[in-house]
Amino acid sequence: MSNTVRVSLPDGNHIEYIDDLIGSGAMKDVYFTPCKTKVVAFYRDPQDAAARERLEMITGVYKERIFEASGGEYWRDLFCWPEQIIEHEGKLGLVMPVYPGHFFFEHGSVNDDMLGIKGKEKQGKWYASANNQNRFLDPRERGNWLNYLQVCLKIARTIRRMHAAGLAHSDLSYKNVLVAPTKAQTCVIDVDGLVVPGKYPPDVVGTPDFIAPECVATAHLDKHDSARKLPSIQTDRHALAVLIYHYLLLRHPLRGDKVHALDPHDDETLGMGEKALFIEHPTDISNRIKLENVRDSELPWKDTNAMCDF
I need a labelling partner for 16 at 20 to 30 A (CA). Which of 82, 135, 177, 288 fits? Predict the structure, then answer.
């Protein structure tokens, strides 16, 4: 049986967590509290003074700006916002609410859950492509187009509220937005790395497919170079547009079949950066998706010519 660890909080209260790892992300290890309504997430690597200050602001004044203001209750289900800082045995961490049950797969994938996703988080990647939906997801998990329109509206409102508070997510993608299409519910997660322009710089550049072209095009420059474009509210808007396009049309707005360079790395850098071209550009059709490269499970969504007629 796992041990229960009791830790003091900065406000003088205590919290307990079960010393049994339930998940690990890129930066943190996660544990349940005994009541399983909250989790404790510890950073594996030491955090410097700037990172601590950022977390104090996120769990303090920024949280108050969003949730304690008029209408703040509306946003509680749309963010998984860190509640408090925790420190134990030299490790810094956060106390956060548990995701509601509808953000976990109930039915799993097809063929007796061959992908083992039953009970796992509903990351948006499962819903962002026709191939994933049609080949892998149980029909009872998919939802309909109206559900996705509602999902997109909620995500857009949530990100707008964050931006109105002067904050940028910096890594907005289908990894960091949970969706439950059949219930038209969404939740923005991983907000502990929020960017405050001029105060707290980004910890990450972003997730491929969602990084703004200007960031990709200048990624080779030093981060202190004034010409280098880093994640910001403006680049969040690009990522949001890509996310919405994915959910409504089940394809990426820049990933067509135009070849920019023979070297795959150079082709990727140009196609998602300096030479980025909308696949539905009204006059330049050179980046349209070629149907001979499309699986049957991806039709009609990847038939750009057909969808452009709508």
Answer: 177
